[in-house]
Design brief:
The complex is a heterodimer of chains A (about 90) and B (about 550).
Chain A (H helix, E strand, L loop, with lengths): L2 H5 L7 H14 L4 H12 L4 H8 L4 H4 L22
Chain B lengths: L1 H17 L8 H13 L3 H11 L4 H13 L3 H8 L7 H24 L1 H14 L6 H13 L3 H6 L9 H17 L6 H15 L9 H21 L4 H21 L7 H6 L3 H9 L8 H9 L5 H8 L3 H6 L1 H4 L5 H20 L3 H9 L7 H13 L6 H10 L9 H18 L4 H14 L4 H24 L3 H10 L3 H19 L6 H18 L4 H21 L1
Helix pairs in contact in B: 2-3, 2-4, 3-4, 4-5, 5-6, 6-7, 6-8, 8-10, 10-11, 11-12, 11-13, 12-13, 15-16, 16-20, 17-20, 20-21, 20-22, 21-23, 24-25, 24-26, 25-26, 26-27, 26-28, 27-28, 27-29, 28-29, 28-30, 29-30
């Protein structure tokens, strides 16, 4: 299970935010107490957390931008008629 | 003036668009209408007129497509533009932009109703060759990641653009999460996919970790995830570990040679950059400790890479099928790969007890003599429990590859001797094979007295058998030669004893034809005299012969 998702926090959350998120998750009862405790333990471990952050987060911007030879995203409206066929 | 004319035409087009046309214009007139409507931005009218005009000229095809895409019909546009044989960069870029619009549209359809739309969408992607369009695949990949559809990310691996860093990252992270979550044995191919993606990502200059300690932490984590899965994979666990270790070492070294993204061999093949990486290795001999390491690195990116991957996946027959083609290529890396394929396939068949097949593979072309091959060969000789020695014969063939002065010579000598002792007692193995095995054993370790003793015994057995066989064929001269060459008194004794038996049979009248009997006895006498003219058997045979001659003379009188 993704510990960031269980506690509903981002990769940069501080230790205090992790504790608060764990308390909130326990109240909301969407996950078992064991899962929440395990997620908190993993994210409080400074050697484990960067690894998990690397695994569970990805910067999708390059994929969403749809770069085609440096062009910006286009809609049909933005297409310009080419004069090379005139 | 020009402006005035345009205004008049424009007003005429607008009028035409508003008026219900009752007279059908000529195709050329439709074209004129279409061109004017296009210039006026009246896309629907332009599209209708182009459809009526049945266009074929490049400019008209382009403009008809342009009107269609402006109306939102990207499929109609691309179908028209497919007829254009235009390589102008502006047109190529615009066509790709329209392709992207279509892909986005198709993905929306898929997301809304995947089951009913899937086939249709796939047909369209194929029609416009869009399956591998990077950005289109990337967009879908991003969507799958956002929705945590990890299995589908894995399924889309064949369509992934591995040169796009984010696509590689998404595939690697999804593969890692699937491995972490797997509490069952997953397919070996999936575990291999994880190794490929994870290592390629961790050594990627852009998408990978930005510090060495972080990379090491992620490598340790990946190794741990793999270890847990490999423990479940009974047969392939060791092979997965080996792949991890070999490719980790390879990527570390390659990362020091070049700042370009280095992919594992399997991904490099998919991404079509294996040739570039191969060239890079070819030019970097100094980066490798020895030529063997250099060859091994280049081989996995060479044209033999596919064969090596087949071997790794356990498809030994498939790899062997490619061998004849590989052995024709004049390249040291490919030659090294071919020998490697021979060696590993030979090893596989040897460990499976298919010694004859292993022998054919290993000795019918160049192979690498390795410590593993040595161990497997020893094991194959040791565990051979056939009574006829067929496996021993095959292993003897493979042993011809053993380098001179090999340190394991003494071990092979004693193992061969033990097998020969076992087979000799079974009396089913050919004495010739046993003698050949012991000849090899004493060559490997001339100081082993026990082996020398067994060698003498099997040579004596062989001489006795050969003498007996020669007498069975009435080849007395050959039997005499064997007896003379043999330094074993038992062999000479058996020779004379058998000669006596032959003479006794003739004397008893076993030969109906007297002339043939005399001829045979003469031959026998000559052969016996060659071995020892003073032997009692010589006198006995001569007596029998004289008796026959006297009998023959009486009959003639």
């Amino acid at each position: 299970m993704n510990p960031f998702k269980i506690l509903n926090i981002g990769p940069e959350a501080s230790a205090q935010e992790i504790m608060q998120a764990a308390a909130l998750a326990l109240r909301e009862k969407q996950h078992s107490a064991y899962e929440i405790a395990e997620a908190r333990r993993q994210l409080m471990d400074p050697s484990v957390r960067p690894v998990l952050a690397f695994i569970y987060f990805a910067d999708l911007e390059p994929l969403l931008r749809q770069p085609v030879r440096g062009e910006k995203p286009l809609s049909a409206d933005a297409l310009k008629r080419l004069e090379i066929f005139d | 003036m020009r402006g005035k004319v345009f205004a008049v035409v424009l007003s005429w087009v607008r009028k035409f668009c508003r008026t219900k046309v009752t007279v059908c214009p000529e195709p050329t007139q439709f074209l004129q209408i279409a061109r004017c409507a296009l210039l006026a931005g009246q896309w629907q009218q332009a599209a209708d007129a182009y459809t009526e005009a049945n266009v074929s000229a490049p400019a008209d095809l382009y403009h008809a497509g342009f009107a269609q895409v402006k109306l939102g019909d990207t499929i109609a546009c691309l179908r028209l533009w497919q007829q254009l044989d235009c390589t102008h960069p502006d047109f190529i870029v615009q066509k790709e932009q329209v392709s992207l619009l279509l892909i986005e549209e198709l993905h929306c359809h898929l997301d809304k109703n995947p089951l009913t739309q899937e086939t249709e969408v796939r047909q369209l992607l194929e029609e416009f060759s869009l399956a591998y369009l990077p950005s289109g695949g990337g967009l879908r990949l991003a969507r799958l990641w956002q929705e945590e559809r990890l299995e589908e990310i894995l399924a889309s691996a064949d369509e992934t653009d591995w040169l796009q860093p984010t696509a590689l990252a998404v595939q690697a992270k999804a593969a890692c999460q699937l491995m972490m979550a797997a509490d069952i044995t997953i397919p070996t191919a999936q575990a291999r996919h994880f190794i490929n993606c994870w290592l390629s990502l961790l050594f990627h200059p852009e998408a990978g970790p930005q510090s060495e300690p972080q990379r090491q932490a992620l490598l340790d984590f990946g190794a741990d995830v793999l270890r847990r899965q490999a423990a479940r994979q009974q047969d392939n666990g060791a092979s997965l570990h080996r792949q991890w270790e070999e490719e980790l070492a390879l990527l570390r070294r390659m990362g020091r040679i070049s700042a370009m993204p280095i992919l594992t061999p399997a991904l490099a093949l998919q991404a079509k950059i294996a040739d570039q990486l191969f060239t890079l290795i070819q030019k970097s001999r100094d980066a490798f400790a020895d030529s063997s390491e250099w060859m091994a690195a280049g081989a996995v990116y060479s044209s033999a890479a596919q064969a090596l991957l087949l071997v790794r996946e356990g498809d030994y027959d498939g790899a062997m099928d490619t061998l004849s083609e590989l052995e024709e290529v004049d390249d040291p890396f490919v030659a090294w790969s071919a020998a490697q394929v021979r060696t590993v396939c030979g090893l596989h068949y040897l460990s499976n007890g298919q010694c004859r097949k292993a022998e054919q593979i290993l000795i019918n072309g160049p192979a690498h003599w390795t410590a593993e091959l040595e161990q497997q060969l020893l094991a194959a000789i040791e565990r051979d429990d056939n009574q006829d020695g067929t496996a021993l014969a095959a292993c003897l063939g493979i042993l011809t590859l053993l380098p001179e002065n090999a340190e394991t010579g003494a071990v092979f000598c004693s193992t061969l001797t033990n097998q020969v002792v076992r087979l000799r007692s079974s009396e089913e193995a050919s004495p010739k094979l046993l003698a050949a095995a012991m000849r090899k054993a004493v060559v490997l370790n001339p100081n082993d007295d026990f082996s020398q003793m067994i060698f003498d015994q099997v040579r004596r057995d062989l001489a006795l058998t050969e003498i007996s066989e020669a007498f069975d064929r009435d080849c007395f001269a050959e039997a005499a030669r064997i007896a003379t060459a043999s330094r074993f008194p038992q062999a000479v004794e058996q020779f004379f004893e058998t000669a006596r038996q032959v003479a006794a049979r003739i004397e008893r009248g076993d030969y109906a034809d007297q002339e043939a009997a005399v001829f045979t006895l003469n031959e026998l006498l000559d052969s016996v005299s060659l071995v020892d003219s003073s032997h009692g058997a010589v006198r006995r045979i001569r007596r029998v012969l004289d008796g026959l001659r006297i009998e023959a003379r009486h009959e003639s009188l």
